[in-house]
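Exercise 7b. C-alpha cells:
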C-alpha cells in the first residue's frame, strides 16, 4: 500500500470512527470469503459498517476519538464493525456471526460510548430490537385506551338495553 493510499484509508477510517457511536473489534483469522461476505451483508442490513484494515492504520484512525481505548485490541487479523445508530442491531449481527464462525473472535467493544465486556456484549445482543421495543411500548400505551373504549361500549349497550 502506497503512502497516499494509507493516508486516504486513515482519513476514511477516522471519519467512520468520528461518526460512530459504537464499535466492535473482531479477530477473523481463518474466515472464508463466503462467510465474510454473508457477514458484511448482515452488517449492512443492520445499518452498520464493517471494515478490515491494517492495525497500524486503525491505531492512527482512532487517535483522539472515544474509540482510542480499543487500540490494544488492534493485533493480529483485525476487523471493525461500527454503527451510528441502533447498538442492539449491531450487537445481534456480530453475535450471530461469532456463533456461526468459531474461527472469529470478539476482541473488544465500545457500545454507545461505554466499553463493554464480552458478557455485557452478549447481554445486549440478547435484547429485543429497537423496533420491537417501540411496538411493545405502543401496545402497552394503547391497551388502557382500548380497555376504556370497550368498557364504555358495554355501558352504552347496557343503557340502550335498559331503555
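Sequence design result:
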Amino acid at each position: 500500500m502506497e503512502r497516499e493510499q494509507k493516508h486516504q484509508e486513515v482519513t476514511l477510517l477516522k471519519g467512520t470512527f468520528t461518526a460512530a457511536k459504537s464499535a466492535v473489534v473482531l479477530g477473523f483469522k481463518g474466515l472464508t470469503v463466503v462467510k465474510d461476505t454473508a457477514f458484511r451483508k448482515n452488517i449492512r442490513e443492520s445499518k452498520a459498517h464493517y471494515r478490515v484494515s491494517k492495525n497500524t492504520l486503525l491505531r492512527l484512525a482512532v487517535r483522539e476519538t472515544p474509540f482510542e481505548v480499543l487500540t490494544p485490541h488492534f493485533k493480529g487479523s483485525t476487523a471493525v464493525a461500527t454503527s451510528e445508530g441502533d447498538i442492539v442491531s449491531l450487537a445481534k449481527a456480530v453475535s450471530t456471526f461469532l456463533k456461526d464462525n468459531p474461527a472469529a473472535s470478539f476482541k473488544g467493544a465500545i457500545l454507545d460510548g461505554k466499553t463493554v465486556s464480552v458478557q455485557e456484549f452478549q447481554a445486549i445482543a440478547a435484547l429485543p430490537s429497537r423496533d420491537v421495543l417501540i411496538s411493545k411500548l405502543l401496545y402497552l400505551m394503547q391497551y388502557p385506551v382500548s380497555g376504556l373504549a370497550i368498557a364504555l361500549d358495554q355501558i352504552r349497550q347496557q343503557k340502550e338495553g335498559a331503555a
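Instructor comment: The mean pLDDT is 88. The first strand starts at residue 22 and ends at 27.
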